[in-house]
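Fill in residues.
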């Protein structure tokens, strides 16, 4: 019995079938960037009114005009080990991008050898092999673009790390000034309490003050000395924290000013324009772009691939004649298509799509967080301004009242407990005012970060 079947396919027909099957399986990944851009444009105006004294600045370090601070920022950017690791991560991705881009170029290899069998002469072989896989479906191009987007994302994260480091240095500088002012304030408190203690001790010896008055004065002196000791320890700790940011173990810290420096209030522009320059949002945007391109690459892995190769070979009886003087050449073109791999390719495409969806969700989360950070910083700027006005007025009233109580105490018109209470209130108000002043300056740095201000290279 003879079985008859269809005629064998011609090579041209086979190539056509593989190409048509590849085109039928070609899918295009969703480009999420247009939708995300619409979400960015739809962010409403800031809910809090901007301060009338806000200034349009483009760089984070332009908020302060401190000659001693700028060298500290430069030292931190140059020496901080954590920032150096972020920069190296970016450079690694740049190298990987070059590696992927090189994968789409032809490869050339050369060989030279000698062989000899028993009873025969030595033969020398020289060869040159050239191979190339044309990027028919733009798979290599998309891989390169995805790697470039990942590099851009890491570059944005590096910019964010630089800005955060500069902000941390500035806030560490402000904290040192605040701690120094705290020590000065507590020292003045101690001087006043010592004077009060000596005055009461003299009256106690003269029989015009009670033992309770004397013990109360001694207690306040001892308590304030303990507060100064803790503040001095905190000051040294803040110095060490600043050295960590500088990436140094024995670096010199310039002399601090006596008063808080002026920190400008950055102007918040339109939400879409302001947020678009935030490095973390830029990084999230590039992550979405890289994920979308990776989806396209995953689908193109299901398509047929074409490879071309050429070879030159020469076999001779002498080394000189084997140097491709009269080579034999050969050409090979090959078209292959994946038929069955147990669902691996489809699973890879599904995984790439889920990764893209995850990147989209991460972008939306970053956008929501960014809007919240700007709103919070603007709200705090207004709140701190109101607190400073109220505390300043209260401190002025407390100083006036303190002078009256001192005069009354000297004339025996009030007791010591009332005087000490007013003294403590005055110093406590000054301490509260210092804390709010520091919080407002630190918040302006946070607002600058929220608005995407960076540090120039």
């Amino acid at each position: 019995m003879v079985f008859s079947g269809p005629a064998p396919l011609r090579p041209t027909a086979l190539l056509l079938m593989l190409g048509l099957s590849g085109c039928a399986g070609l899918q295009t990944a969703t480009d999420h960037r247009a939708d995300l851009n619409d979400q960015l444009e739809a962010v409403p105006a800031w809910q809090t009114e901007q301060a009338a004294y806000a200034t349009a600045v483009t760089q984070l370090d332009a908020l302060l005009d401190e000659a001693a601070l700028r060298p500290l920022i430069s030292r931190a950017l140059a020496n901080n080990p954590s920032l150096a690791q972020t920069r190296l991560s970016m450079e690694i991705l740049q190298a990987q991008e070059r590696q992927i881009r090189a994968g789409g170029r032809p490869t050339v290899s050369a060989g030279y050898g000698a062989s000899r069998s028993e009873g025969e002469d030595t033969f020398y072989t020289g060869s040159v092999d050239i191979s190339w896989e044309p990027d028919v479906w733009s798979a290599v191009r998309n891989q390169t673009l995805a790697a470039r987007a990942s590099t851009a994302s890491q570059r944005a994260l590096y910019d964010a790390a630089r800005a955060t480091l500069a902000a941390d240095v500035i806030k560490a500088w402000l904290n040192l000034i605040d701690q120094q002012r705290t020590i000065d304030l507590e020292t003045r408190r101690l001087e006043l309490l010592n004077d009060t203690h000596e005055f009461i001790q003299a009256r106690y010896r003269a029989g015009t003050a009670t033992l309770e008055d004397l013990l109360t004065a001694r207690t306040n002196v001892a308590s304030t000395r303990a507060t100064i000791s803790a503040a001095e320890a905190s000051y040294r700790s803040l110095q060490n924290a600043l050295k960590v940011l500088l990436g140094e173990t024995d670096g010199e810290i310039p002399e601090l000013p006596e008063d808080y420096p002026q920190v400008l209030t950055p102007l918040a522009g339109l939400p879409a324009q302001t947020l678009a320059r935030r490095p973390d949002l830029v990084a999230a945007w590039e992550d979405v772009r890289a994920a979308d391109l990776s989806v396209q690459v995953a689908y193109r892995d299901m398509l047929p691939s074409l490879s071309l190769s050429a070879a030159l070979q020469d076999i001779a009886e002498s080394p000189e004649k084997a140097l491709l003087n009269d080579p034999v050449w050969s050409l090979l073109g090959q078209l292959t298509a994946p038929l069955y791999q147990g669902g691996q390719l489809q699973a890879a495409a599904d995984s790439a799509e889920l990764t893209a969806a995850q990147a989209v969700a991460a972008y939306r989360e970053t956008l929501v967080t960014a809007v919240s950070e700007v709103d919070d910083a603007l709200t705090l700027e207004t709140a701190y301004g109101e607190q400073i006005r109220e505390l300043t007025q209260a401190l002025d009233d407390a100083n006036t009242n303190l002078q009256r109580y001192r005069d009354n105490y000297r004339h025996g018109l009030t007791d010591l407990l009332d005087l000490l209470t007013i003294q403590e209130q005055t110093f406590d108000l000054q301490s509260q005012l210092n804390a709010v002043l520091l919080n407002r300056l630190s918040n302006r740095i946070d607002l600058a970060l929220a608005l995407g201000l960076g540090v120039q290279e």
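The chain has a mean pLDDT of 84.
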